[in-house]
Amino acid sequence: MSTSHLIRLIAPSGYCHNQIAAERAVTRLREWGHTVENTEAITRRFQRFAGNDAERLQDINGLARLDHLPDIILAIRGGYGVTRLLDQVDFAGLRQRFSSKMPIICGHSDFTALQLALLAKSGLVTFSGPMLSGNFGAETLSDFTLEHFWRAITSPTVTLQWQSATPDVSPIQGTVWGGNLAMIMTLVGTPWLPTPDNGILVIEDVNEHPFRTERMLLQLHHSGILARQRAIVTGSFTGANLTDYDNGFNFDTVWQTVRDITGLPVISGLDFGHDHDTVTLPLGAKGEVQVNQGMAQLTLTGHPILR
Questions:
Q1: Catalytic-residue membership of 31
Q2: Alpha helices in the chain (DSSP H)
Q3: Domain 6-141 shares a fold with domain 157-301
Q4: pLDDT of residue 95
Q5: Which residues belong to any copy of the LD-carboxypeptidase C-terminal domain (predicted)?
């Protein structure tokens, strides 16, 4: 973080209800030597959104008309709102503007819908990772999250390792894509869902019970999307309350069901998603994943980096 970068905030989703956290994040980023612009998006509000549709769309399409591109484009928070805008996003203009310099575009949750649409329509690789309010504005910063963020956006090759209960998996190569599972599902049957062959699908979610998670994965299976994948990697699935009624039905049984039905390796345990600690993943990059004696490894290449 010794180099100063221009960071532009965008808020295409929900109103930033934790204003204190967002301001704390801006202060931190500036103390670290970065320039932060478009901070007025933090306080914008219309109903539950971070401004009306036109204002939030301008956050996205306005990027194609900037005289000076930022180094990093950072989502303020998730929530809901991106899918209202997708049919009006200037994908061609963004692709053309970013052809000479691809900024680091980062966020997760509802932001997944925009990221996957940018990959599908413009071929742009963006990063599923921390956001302004929830991550950079956390009362206690996660060193894990910060280290993985800066490493992902500055290193041409990134290798992640984690412990996984998944049986051994020989090295599998493919295109890494995915993000928030519920948002992936909202794009099924639309022009904005990427369809990479030989994909490595990485998924995470919050407040989704195992049965709803399984139901979404079965929809991906029955719609033919999982048939084009070579592996599935699961991140954090938190916030669901299991009861006696579940009688042993949990996320581990979901992953096994998906293995049994699809024949795909489902590699669990990656710190990725809505938790305090999260890695940063380039969506659309090339990846190689394997599991050897309880240790999973994912190597990523071909993504944009800060220059």
A1: no
A2: 19-31, 53-61, 91-97, 112-122, 143-154, 181-187, 210-222, 251-262
A3: no
A4: 98
A5: 173-288
The catalytically annotated residue of 13, 109, 133, 268 is 109
Q: Are 1 and 150 in contact (CB under 8 A)?
A: yes
The pLDDT assigned to 1 comes to 52
3-state secondary structure of 106: strand
Which residue in 204, 209, 214, 303 is the catalytic one? 204
Out of 5, 108, 209, 274, pick the active-site residue.
Answer: 274
246 exposure class (CB count in 10 Å sphere: 0-12, 13-18, 19+): middle
Kindly list the domain boundaries of the chain, sorted by start residue: 6-141, 157-301
Query: Given this model, what pLDDT does residue 104 score?
Result: 98
Identify whether 109 is a catalytic site residue.
yes
> Global pTM?
0.97
Q: Does 208 participate in catalysis according to the annotation?
A: no
Q: Assess if CATH 3.50.30.60 describes domain 157-301.
A: yes
Q: Read off the pLDDT of each residue in 137-150 and give the average, rounded to a whole number.
A: 98
Strand, coil or helix: 281: strand
Residue 276, token pair as written in the block: 């305090």
d(CA 130, CA 109): 10
Contact yes or no for 182/208 (Cβ under 8 A): yes
Per-residue pLDDT, 2 = 57
pLDDT band at 307, cuts 50/70/90? confident
- Angle between helix 251-262 and helix 210-222 axes, rounded to 10 deg: 10
Query: What's 6-141's CATH class?
Result: alpha beta
Paired with 173 in beta bridges are 288
pLDDT exceeds 90 at position 5: yes
Percent with pLDDT over 70 in the chain:
99
Six-digit token string for 120: 């599908």
Mark residue 173 as left, alpha or beta (left: phi above 0; alpha: psi -120 to 50; beta: remaining). Answer: beta
